[in-house]
Amino acid sequence: MSLIKCTELMIGYNMPILSQALDFSVEEGDYLTIVGENGAGKSTLMKTMLRLIPALSGNIEFGDGLSANEIGYLPQQTIVQRDFPASVREVVVSGCQGTAGFRPFYNEEEKKLAEKNIKRMGMEEYINQSYRNLSGGQQQRVLLARALCATGKLLLLDEPVAGLDPGAMKDLYELIQRLNKEGVAIIMISHDVQVAFQYAKHILHVGEDMFFGTAKEYMESEMGRRFAPGKGGEQ
To answer: Residues 208, 53: contact at Cβ < 8 Å?
Structure first.
């Protein structure tokens, strides 16, 4: 069953930023990587799927009882966010805000969910430590735990390894892959097409030219050969 289905979708701020409309879907347990040139509209597309900005035209349909506020979202971090003065526990439980609504506090069930996801990300020994004192890779694990408090079905990740050293990048990619194998669908923006081939089941390429299909189909396509020499069979 499709968790998200986008039909004839046009995105942008007041005017389209893509040359053509988007048609694609994300199924339960899928792993979709969105690739494309810088400024092609990858982050704009993700924010449109989250209903943070309106679509210019077309439709976004949620399936399997999913709604926009039940999607885990990990945006690109800013310098200010990396220096956020709160404990790991406080950051993670804030991911329950969608279910807490206007309540001024989190209930015991939400607190237990936060602790469960902190342990799931291997961050239990840091639970009372300040988020601002963690390494970049540790902060991303905390933000993944926060995102998991909002959903058990779908995570949207915008360049989750940006700014990390190679070791931390590898660890985070493997952690995301593990979540996918546990049944969480992944939509991830990446500038690294090689990584898309390694982990993704489907690839969406946005820009002047568009592509949506399996990773294997992308590898064998003219676009895949052009953007990832050596992977698609040509140098």
So the answer is: no
Count of beta carbons in the 10 Å neighbourhood of residue 196 = 27
Q: Which residues of the chain have pLDDT under 70?
A: 1, 78-81, 98-103, 229-235
1-71+154-235 — its CATH code? 3.40.50.300
Angle at 140 between CA 114 and CA 115, to 5 degrees: 15
Q: How far is CA 215 from CA 85, 88, 157, 212, 218, in A?
A: 40, 36, 18, 9, 5
pTM for this model (two decimals)? 0.89
**What sign does the CA torsion over 80, 86, 88, 89 have?**
negative
The residues spanned by each domain of the chain are: 1-71+154-235, 78-150
Query: Could you give phi then psi for residue 105, rounded to 5 degrees?
Result: -150, 165
